[in-house]
């Protein structure tokens, strides 16, 4: 074997872990890159029992993939971090992370120290984020035309869903949309055989224990009980004595008095975290009180926020009428909708809460529609709080060339990492053009030439005609936080993968 061959083998062994991790990252990236852009296609996910999900939502694909490779799992964390923080842009963030890894690996195997590449990438990403932030277009309000176009893109050009999300945003109001603790996407509920609707109030997932006679109430008082609706309990040993039985009867009588007090206070809806005693069930049926047991803590909190109810424990039912009345909530209308099998609580003046109902004929279709609506709602809220940028990879392309000019003035081996960021930023547009059937290298040069001539970073390619167009004029826009957080998260994971020298399996610990 020649000296050159020995060197090649040694090099392969030296970088075997890096190449193995890179290949795993590439495999995961390839699962989602075909979905990017207006000409992107869907992925069919098949479960172990034959269940099927058809989607082009990046986080759904990655979350449901059977992935065991540790480096690949790191990449999937990019999508999860993007989804948790922003709620949109998971595919682009994943593709950027994959591109950063590939570009970093290509420089490391050429002899550049990994630490230098990672440091250069960190500097390049920081500068790229700075350049992107300087290009942000601020959204002036819910009537800003750039906002609706941004939602249109995120909603995959589904006009019905865009109209639904825009209506929900107007009803929620700007103040609520700016609240970091509020998520418009969390208000979306997918229902089979239902019509698309924006409902001002809360839709409960649980059914009442009876629905035959009591379907609707106006100006209803609402009781929220973080407990079961039943008498206070006694130990079985106590019940065997005469005094114990007398105490048991006192508790039953006291419980009956508590129920009478609730009826006198005009309580028409009782929400329980736990179950209900048969006596209480019969009392509520006789007095026209709707009862919903086993309601989740999340739903109870939403109801309390909207109605002003104070969640209480069972012992609080013993309070006098005036004290108990102060703990009740109010809803202008409570009804059971037999069509969708859900309870509707209309919101009053206290809190503007909206529920977005997304309907379709089958569970597969309604699930995908809900995911699209979730992306559109997240994009809307991100655009309102952080502005927008031209989409389709145009902003990233402009920043890529700006980084190249900055790199020319730098020294040191960190410039190779800086260069890797510049190359990776071209990947989103390259993939979109490839999915549309064009030669990425040729078309990206056309786009870049147009950006230079016009002095605008919004020049991109029409994926239908292949001509250069102004994306901002056409309304092809993305929320700025989607791009900024996506690039940041991609850089974090890429750096982690590139710094791995060995993968060592830990021994099992017997407890």
Percentage of β-strand residues: 5-15%
Shape: elongated
Radius of gyration: 29 Å
How many E-type strands? 14
* Oligomerization status of the protein chains: single chain
Q: How many helices?
A: 21
Largest sheet: 8 strands, mixed
Strand order within the widest beta sheet: 3-10-4-9-8-5-6-7
Average the pLDDT over all residues and give the rounded result. Answer: 86
What is the helix fraction of residues, given as a range? 40-55%
What is the SS-derived class?
Answer: alpha+beta
Could you name the ranges where pLDDT drops below 50 across 5 or more consecutive residues? 1-11
What is the distance, rounded to the nearest whole angstrom, between the alpha carbons of the first and last residues? 51 Å
How would you describe this structure to a colleague?
Helix 2 (16-33) crosses helix 4 (70-85) and helix 5 packs antiparallel against helix 17 (414-424). The protein has 511 residues and is an alpha+beta fold. The protein starts with a helix and ends in a 13-residue tail after the last helix. The chain is elongated and about 90 Å long. The longest helix is centred in the last third of the chain and has 24 residues, at 363-386. It contains 21 helices and 14 strands. Strand 8 (329-337) and strand 9 (342-346) form a beta hairpin. The chain has an eight-stranded mixed β-sheet with strand order 3-10-4-9-8-5-6-7, sandwiched between helices. A two-stranded antiparallel sheet has the order 1-2.
């Amino acid at each position: 074997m020649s000296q050159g061959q020995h060197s090649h083998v040694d090099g392969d062994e030296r970088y075997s872990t890096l190449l193995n991790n890179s290949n795993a990252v590439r495999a995961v990236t390839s699962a989602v890159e075909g979905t990017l852009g207006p000409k992107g296609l869907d992925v069919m996910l098949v479960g172990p029992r034959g269940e099927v999900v058809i989607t082009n939502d990046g986080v759904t694909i990655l979350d449901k993939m059977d992935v065991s490779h540790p480096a690949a799992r790191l990449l999937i964390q990019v999508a999860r971090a993007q989804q948790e923080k922003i709620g949109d842009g998971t595919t682009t963030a994943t593709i950027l992370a994959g591109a950063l890894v590939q570009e970093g690996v290509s420089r490391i195997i050429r002899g550049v120290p990994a630490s230098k590449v990672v440091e250069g990438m960190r500097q390049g990403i920081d500068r790229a984020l700075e350049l992107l932030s300087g290009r942000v277009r601020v959204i002036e309000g819910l009537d800003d035309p750039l906002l609706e176009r941004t939602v249109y893109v995120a909603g995959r050009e589904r006009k019905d869903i865009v109209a639904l999300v825009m209506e929900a945003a107007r009803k929620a109001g700007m103040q609520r949309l700016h609240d970091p603790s509020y998520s418009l996407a969390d208000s979306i509920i997918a229902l089979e055989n239902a019509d698309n609707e924006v409902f001002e109030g809360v839709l409960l997932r649980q059914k009442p224990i009876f629905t035959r006679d009591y379907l609707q109430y106006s100006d209803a008082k609402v009781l929220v009980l973080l407990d079961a609706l039943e008498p206070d309990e006694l130990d079985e040993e106590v019940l065997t004595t005469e005094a114990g039985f007398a105490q048991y009867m006192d508790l039953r009588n006291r419980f009956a008095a508590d129920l009478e007090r609730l009826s006198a206070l005009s309580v028409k809806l009782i929400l329980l975290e736990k179950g209900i005693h048969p006596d209480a069930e019969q009392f509520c049926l006789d007095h026209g009180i709707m009862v919903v047991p086993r309601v989740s803590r999340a739903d109870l909190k939403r109801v309390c926020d909207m109605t002003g109810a104070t969640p209480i424990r069972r012992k609080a039912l013993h309070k006098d009428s005036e004290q108990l009345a102060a703990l009740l909530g109010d809803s202008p209308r409570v009804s059971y909708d037999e069509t969708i099998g859900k309870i509707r609580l209309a919101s009053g003046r206290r809190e503007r809460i909206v529920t977005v109902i997304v309907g379709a004929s089958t569970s597969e279709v309604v699930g995908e529609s809900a995911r699209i609506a979730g992306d559109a709602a997240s994009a809307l809220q991100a655009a309102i709080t952080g502005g927008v940028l031209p989409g389709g990879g145009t902003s990233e392309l402009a920043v890529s060339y700006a980084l190249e000019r900055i790199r020319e003035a730098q020294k040191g081996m960190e410039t190779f990492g800086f260069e890797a960021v510049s190359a990776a930023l071209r990947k989103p547009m390259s993939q979109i053009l490839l999915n549309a059937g064009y030669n990425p290298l040729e078309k990206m040069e056309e786009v870049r030439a147009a950006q230079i001539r016009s002095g605008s970073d919004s020049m991109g390619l029409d994926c239908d005609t292949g001509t250069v167009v102004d994306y901002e004029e056409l309304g092809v826009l993305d929320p700025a936080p989607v791009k900024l957080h996506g690039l940041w998260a991609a850089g974090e994971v890429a750096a982690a993968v590139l710094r791995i020298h060995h993968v060592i399996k830990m021994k099992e610990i017997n407890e």
